[in-house]
Amino acid sequence: MDRAQFIKGIIAGLGSALIVGALNLSTLAISGSWDNYIDNLINQTRDASGQAHADKACIIGLNDGSSWTTSGHPNALKLSSQEAEKIASVFRSGDFTSFMASGIHIEGVKYQFLREEDGLVVYGKKKEHGSVTLQKSKTAIVIAHSPEGSQQGNLNKGVGVIAEYLESLNL
C-alpha cells in the first residue's frame, strides 16, 4: 500500500466514524427534546386572543405505544400502558370499529368516538371533560386534549402541525 492509499483509508475511516457520531448525536438530540413538542403543540392551538385550546398532549410510538414524551412534563397526557397499546394497535390496523364500539380511553376517561379521517386522524369528545384529537405519522401518534369549552378546531390544527412535521422527518 502506498502513502496515498494509506491516507485515503484513514480519511474514509474517519469520515465513517464522523457520520456515525453525527447520527448518534442527532438521535440523542431528537430523543432528548420530545417534551418540547408538547409546548409547541399547545402554542399552535392559540387563537387570535392568545388563548391556547390544548392543555395536555403526548406522542407515542405507532409500533408499540411506547411513550416518546415524558410524564414529568406539566402538560403531559399520561396514558396507561394499556391505553397507549390499544391506541397504537387501532391505528396500526386501520380498523377503528373498537373505538366506535367502546370509545377512546385516555387517562382513564372514555371519550365518545366522533369520526376518523383517512385512517390518520381520530376525534373524540366527552361532555364536561373536553375533546381529544389523535393523528398518526409514519412512526408515531400525536395525541392532545382540549378542556371543555375550548375549540376543537384549534386543537386539530396543533396536532396536525406536529404530526405533519414528524412526517416530514420520516418519523
Describe this structure in words.
This protein has helices spanning 3-31, 34-44, 81-93, 97-102, 152-168; strands spanning 56-61, 104-106, 109-117, 121-126, 130-136, 140-146. It is of the alpha+beta class and 171 residues long. The protein folds into two domains: 1-31; 34-168, Beta-Lactamase, CATH 3.30.450.30. A six-stranded antiparallel sheet has the order 1-6-5-4-3-2, with helices on both faces. It is globular. It starts with a helix and ends with a helix. Mean pLDDT is 86; it is low at 13-31.
Summary of the model, kept short:
The protein is α+β, with helices and mostly antiparallel strands and 171 residues long.
Q: Got a strand count?
A: 6
Tell me the domain tally.
2
Mean pLDDT: 86
Main sheet, how many strands, which sense, barrel? 6 strands, antiparallel
Looking at the structure, what is the overall shape? Answer: globular
In terms of per-residue confidence, which ranges show pLDDT below 50 for 5 or more consecutive residues? 13-31
The gyration radius over C-alpha positions equals 20 Å
- Structural class by helix and strand composition: alpha+beta
Helix and strand succession? HHEHHEEEEEH
Q: So, CATH architecture of the largest domain? A: 2-Layer Sandwich
CATH homologous superfamily caption of the largest domain? Dynein light chain 2a, cytoplasmic
DSSP helical segment count: 5
Strand portion, in percent? Answer: 15-25%
CATH classification, class level of the largest domain: Alpha Beta
CATH topology description of the largest domain: Beta-Lactamase
Span between termini: 44 Å
